[in-house]
Design brief:
44% of the residues lie in helices and 0% in strands. The protein is mainly alpha-helical. The protein binds a DNA duplex (21 and 21 nucleotides) through helix 3 and helix 6.
Length: 224
DNA sequence: AAAGGATACAACCGCCCCACA
DNA sequence: GTGTGGGGCGGTTGTATCCTT
Protein backbone atom coordinates (compact mmCIF):
# COMPACT_ATOMS: atom_id res chain seq x y z
CA UNK A 1 0.00 0.00 0.00
CA UNK A 2 1.37 3.31 -1.05
CA UNK A 3 1.71 5.85 1.67
CA UNK A 4 0.18 9.28 1.13
CA UNK A 5 2.32 12.03 -0.25
CA UNK A 6 2.20 13.86 3.04
CA UNK A 7 0.78 13.76 6.49
CA UNK A 8 -2.66 15.19 5.95
CA UNK A 9 -3.13 16.03 9.57
CA UNK A 10 -1.82 19.43 10.45
CA UNK A 11 -1.62 20.62 6.86
CA UNK A 12 -3.50 23.67 5.65
CA UNK A 13 -5.90 23.39 2.76
CA UNK A 14 -7.72 25.84 0.58
CA UNK A 15 -6.65 29.24 -0.58
CA UNK A 16 -3.08 30.34 0.02
CA UNK A 17 -2.41 33.37 2.16
CA UNK A 18 0.07 36.08 1.18
CA UNK A 19 2.37 34.97 3.97
CA UNK A 20 2.39 31.39 2.70
CA UNK A 21 3.07 32.58 -0.84
CA UNK A 22 5.96 34.69 0.39
CA UNK A 23 7.45 31.83 2.38
CA UNK A 24 7.33 29.59 -0.66
CA UNK A 25 8.81 32.24 -2.94
CA UNK A 26 11.58 33.01 -0.50
CA UNK A 27 12.45 29.37 -0.03
CA UNK A 28 12.57 28.56 -3.73
CA UNK A 29 14.55 31.70 -4.45
CA UNK A 30 17.24 30.44 -2.11
CA UNK A 31 17.10 26.69 -2.58
CA UNK A 32 15.54 26.29 -6.00
CA UNK A 33 12.71 23.99 -7.08
CA UNK A 34 12.53 20.33 -6.25
CA UNK A 35 12.25 18.01 -3.26
CA UNK A 36 8.64 19.01 -2.94
CA UNK A 37 7.95 16.44 -0.27
CA UNK A 38 10.43 17.89 2.13
CA UNK A 39 10.00 21.50 1.05
CA UNK A 40 7.01 22.43 3.22
CA UNK A 41 8.79 21.49 6.43
CA UNK A 42 12.00 23.18 5.37
CA UNK A 43 10.13 26.30 4.29
CA UNK A 44 8.02 26.41 7.42
CA UNK A 45 4.80 25.78 5.55
CA UNK A 46 1.96 23.65 6.83
CA UNK A 47 1.12 22.45 3.37
CA UNK A 48 1.32 19.27 1.38
CA UNK A 49 4.34 19.16 -0.91
CA UNK A 50 2.11 18.70 -3.89
CA UNK A 51 0.16 21.76 -2.92
CA UNK A 52 3.39 23.77 -2.77
CA UNK A 53 4.44 22.52 -6.16
CA UNK A 54 1.09 23.37 -7.69
CA UNK A 55 1.06 26.83 -6.16
CA UNK A 56 4.54 27.55 -7.45
CA UNK A 57 4.08 26.09 -10.91
CA UNK A 58 0.71 27.66 -11.56
CA UNK A 59 0.82 31.02 -9.81
CA UNK A 60 4.07 32.07 -8.22
CA UNK A 61 6.65 31.34 -10.87
CA UNK A 62 8.04 34.64 -12.13
CA UNK A 63 7.69 33.77 -15.81
CA UNK A 64 3.96 33.18 -15.69
CA UNK A 65 1.79 35.19 -17.99
CA UNK A 66 -1.48 36.17 -16.34
CA UNK A 67 -4.60 37.60 -17.85
CA UNK A 68 -6.85 36.88 -20.78
CA UNK A 69 -5.84 34.59 -23.58
CA UNK A 70 -5.18 36.29 -26.90
CA UNK A 71 -7.04 35.16 -29.99
CA UNK A 72 -3.92 33.53 -31.40
CA UNK A 73 -3.38 31.68 -28.16
CA UNK A 74 -6.93 30.42 -28.27
CA UNK A 75 -6.54 29.30 -31.86
CA UNK A 76 -3.38 27.48 -30.97
CA UNK A 77 -5.03 25.73 -28.06
CA UNK A 78 -7.81 24.50 -30.32
CA UNK A 79 -5.35 23.22 -32.85
CA UNK A 80 -3.16 21.57 -30.29
CA UNK A 81 -6.14 20.03 -28.56
CA UNK A 82 -7.29 18.53 -31.84
CA UNK A 83 -3.82 17.09 -32.19
CA UNK A 84 -3.06 16.05 -28.65
CA UNK A 85 -6.35 15.63 -26.84
CA UNK A 86 -6.52 16.52 -23.16
CA UNK A 87 -2.79 16.56 -22.71
CA UNK A 88 -2.73 19.93 -21.14
CA UNK A 89 0.87 19.97 -20.11
CA UNK A 90 1.95 19.38 -23.69
CA UNK A 91 -0.41 22.06 -24.94
CA UNK A 92 0.71 24.49 -22.27
CA UNK A 93 4.30 23.74 -23.17
CA UNK A 94 3.69 25.44 -26.48
CA UNK A 95 2.13 28.51 -24.96
CA UNK A 96 4.89 30.50 -23.31
CA UNK A 97 3.98 31.64 -19.83
CA UNK A 98 0.82 29.57 -19.66
CA UNK A 99 0.33 26.63 -17.34
CA UNK A 100 -1.46 23.37 -17.92
CA UNK A 101 -4.01 24.23 -15.25
CA UNK A 102 -4.74 27.58 -16.82
CA UNK A 103 -5.09 26.10 -20.29
CA UNK A 104 -7.32 23.35 -18.96
CA UNK A 105 -9.54 25.82 -17.16
CA UNK A 106 -9.72 28.08 -20.18
CA UNK A 107 -10.63 25.16 -22.38
CA UNK A 108 -13.37 23.96 -20.06
CA UNK A 109 -14.86 27.35 -19.36
CA UNK A 110 -14.48 29.16 -22.68
CA UNK A 111 -13.38 27.19 -25.69
CA UNK A 112 -15.41 24.08 -25.13
CA UNK A 113 -18.56 26.12 -24.79
CA UNK A 114 -17.71 28.09 -27.88
CA UNK A 115 -17.16 24.98 -29.98
CA UNK A 116 -20.39 23.45 -28.77
CA UNK A 117 -22.22 26.60 -29.79
CA UNK A 118 -20.71 26.25 -33.23
CA UNK A 119 -21.91 22.68 -33.45
CA UNK A 120 -18.46 21.21 -33.08
CA UNK A 121 -17.75 18.31 -30.80
CA UNK A 122 -14.96 19.59 -28.55
CA UNK A 123 -13.80 16.05 -27.91
CA UNK A 124 -13.02 15.13 -31.47
CA UNK A 125 -13.31 18.50 -33.24
CA UNK A 126 -15.79 17.09 -35.70
CA UNK A 127 -19.01 18.68 -36.72
CA UNK A 128 -22.56 17.64 -35.97
CA UNK A 129 -21.76 15.38 -33.07
CA UNK A 130 -23.28 18.03 -30.86
CA UNK A 131 -26.58 19.75 -31.38
CA UNK A 132 -26.33 23.45 -31.90
CA UNK A 133 -28.76 23.90 -29.08
CA UNK A 134 -27.87 21.36 -26.44
CA UNK A 135 -30.90 20.29 -24.49
CA UNK A 136 -30.75 21.37 -20.90
CA UNK A 137 -29.77 18.58 -18.60
CA UNK A 138 -30.85 18.60 -15.02
CA UNK A 139 -27.52 18.16 -13.39
CA UNK A 140 -25.35 20.25 -11.15
CA UNK A 141 -23.68 23.09 -13.01
CA UNK A 142 -20.15 22.03 -12.35
CA UNK A 143 -20.66 18.41 -13.21
CA UNK A 144 -19.03 17.18 -16.39
CA UNK A 145 -22.39 16.10 -17.72
CA UNK A 146 -23.44 19.72 -17.85
CA UNK A 147 -20.69 20.24 -20.37
CA UNK A 148 -21.72 17.20 -22.38
CA UNK A 149 -18.74 15.25 -21.20
CA UNK A 150 -19.28 11.80 -19.84
CA UNK A 151 -17.18 10.71 -16.91
CA UNK A 152 -14.56 8.34 -18.12
CA UNK A 153 -11.78 6.38 -16.55
CA UNK A 154 -8.44 8.10 -16.42
CA UNK A 155 -6.28 7.70 -19.49
CA UNK A 156 -8.69 5.39 -21.20
CA UNK A 157 -7.48 3.51 -24.19
CA UNK A 158 -10.00 5.44 -26.22
CA UNK A 159 -8.39 8.67 -25.20
CA UNK A 160 -4.95 7.36 -25.90
CA UNK A 161 -6.01 6.11 -29.29
CA UNK A 162 -7.18 9.55 -30.17
CA UNK A 163 -3.72 10.94 -29.76
CA UNK A 164 -1.90 11.14 -33.03
CA UNK A 165 1.61 10.14 -33.95
CA UNK A 166 2.60 13.74 -33.62
CA UNK A 167 1.55 13.58 -30.01
CA UNK A 168 3.80 10.61 -29.56
CA UNK A 169 6.61 12.68 -30.92
CA UNK A 170 5.84 15.29 -28.32
CA UNK A 171 6.02 12.62 -25.68
CA UNK A 172 9.40 11.68 -26.99
CA UNK A 173 10.45 15.25 -26.80
CA UNK A 174 9.32 15.51 -23.22
CA UNK A 175 11.24 12.46 -22.24
CA UNK A 176 14.34 13.82 -23.89
CA UNK A 177 14.55 11.36 -26.73
CA UNK A 178 14.03 14.08 -29.30
CA UNK A 179 16.03 17.20 -28.81
CA UNK A 180 13.86 19.55 -30.78
CA UNK A 181 10.65 19.23 -32.66
CA UNK A 182 9.11 21.88 -34.84
CA UNK A 183 5.48 21.09 -35.44
CA UNK A 184 5.23 23.90 -37.93
CA UNK A 185 1.93 24.88 -36.44
CA UNK A 186 0.47 28.07 -37.67
CA UNK A 187 -2.57 30.00 -36.64
CA UNK A 188 -4.00 29.96 -40.14
CA UNK A 189 -7.12 27.96 -40.82
CA UNK A 190 -8.17 26.12 -43.93
CA UNK A 191 -10.06 27.96 -46.56
CA UNK A 192 -13.80 27.77 -47.01
CA UNK A 193 -15.98 26.36 -45.75
CA UNK A 194 -13.98 26.02 -42.56
CA UNK A 195 -12.80 29.59 -42.62
CA UNK A 196 -16.40 30.53 -42.40
CA UNK A 197 -16.45 29.01 -38.96
CA UNK A 198 -13.19 30.67 -38.08
CA UNK A 199 -14.66 34.01 -38.97
CA UNK A 200 -17.56 33.19 -36.79
CA UNK A 201 -15.29 32.27 -33.94
CA UNK A 202 -13.65 35.62 -34.14
CA UNK A 203 -16.88 37.45 -34.45
CA UNK A 204 -18.63 35.51 -31.77
CA UNK A 205 -17.95 37.49 -28.66
CA UNK A 206 -20.86 36.08 -26.80
CA UNK A 207 -23.94 36.56 -28.89
CA UNK A 208 -24.86 34.29 -31.76
CA UNK A 209 -27.18 35.50 -34.43
CA UNK A 210 -29.94 33.25 -35.63
CA UNK A 211 -28.17 32.99 -38.97
CA UNK A 212 -25.06 31.72 -37.28
CA UNK A 213 -26.96 29.30 -35.15
CA UNK A 214 -28.56 27.79 -38.20
CA UNK A 215 -25.28 27.32 -39.96
CA UNK A 216 -23.99 23.79 -40.29
CA UNK A 217 -20.63 23.36 -41.96
CA UNK A 218 -20.20 20.17 -43.93
CA UNK A 219 -16.67 19.19 -43.01
CA UNK A 220 -14.32 18.82 -40.15
CA UNK A 221 -13.15 22.13 -38.87
CA UNK A 222 -9.49 22.02 -38.05
CA UNK A 223 -7.83 18.84 -39.16
CA UNK A 224 -8.45 16.53 -41.99
C1' DA B 1 -32.42 45.08 -4.14
C1' DA B 2 -32.53 40.24 -3.54
C1' DA B 3 -32.35 35.54 -4.93
C1' DG B 4 -30.99 32.03 -7.75
C1' DG B 5 -28.34 30.41 -11.53
C1' DA B 6 -24.21 30.47 -14.32
C1' DT B 7 -19.46 31.01 -14.84
C1' DA B 8 -14.51 31.21 -13.81
C1' DC B 9 -10.75 29.52 -11.71
C1' DA B 10 -7.89 28.05 -7.71
C1' DA B 11 -6.93 24.03 -5.50
C1' DC B 12 -7.22 19.14 -4.29
C1' DC B 13 -7.25 14.13 -5.35
C1' DG B 14 -5.62 10.05 -6.98
C1' DC B 15 -3.44 7.61 -10.58
C1' DC B 16 0.55 7.06 -13.56
C1' DC B 17 5.36 7.41 -15.02
C1' DC B 18 10.07 7.16 -14.29
C1' DA B 19 14.44 7.03 -12.00
C1' DC B 20 16.95 4.62 -8.89
C1' DA B 21 18.36 1.21 -5.57
C1' DG C 1 13.52 -7.81 -12.97
C1' DT C 2 11.20 -5.68 -9.12
C1' DG C 3 9.86 -2.45 -5.55
C1' DT C 4 9.68 2.18 -3.96
C1' DG C 5 9.44 7.11 -3.73
C1' DG C 6 9.09 11.51 -5.91
C1' DG C 7 7.17 14.18 -9.25
C1' DG C 8 3.84 15.10 -12.85
C1' DC C 9 -0.56 14.94 -14.92
C1' DG C 10 -5.55 15.16 -15.83
C1' DG C 11 -10.03 15.05 -13.68
C1' DT C 12 -12.87 16.99 -10.42
C1' DT C 13 -14.56 19.93 -6.77
C1' DG C 14 -15.38 24.13 -4.03
C1' DT C 15 -16.28 28.71 -3.91
C1' DA C 16 -16.14 33.55 -5.16
C1' DT C 17 -17.94 36.51 -8.48
C1' DC C 18 -20.90 37.86 -12.12
C1' DC C 19 -25.29 37.85 -14.45
C1' DT C 20 -30.17 37.43 -14.99
C1' DT C 21 -34.75 37.58 -13.48
Amino acid sequence: MRKPCCDKQGTNKGAWSKQEDQKLIDYIRIHGEGCWRSLPKAAGLHRCGKSCRLRWINYLRPDIKRGNFAQDEEDLIIKLHALLGNRWSLIAGRLPGRTDNEVKNYWNSHIKRKLIKLGIDPNNHKLSQYPLRPQPQHVSPSSPASLNVARKPRRSSVDKDRVSDAASCLDDERSGRVSKLDLGLTIAFPTTPTNHIEEKQQNTASIMTSEEENYTAPTLLLFR
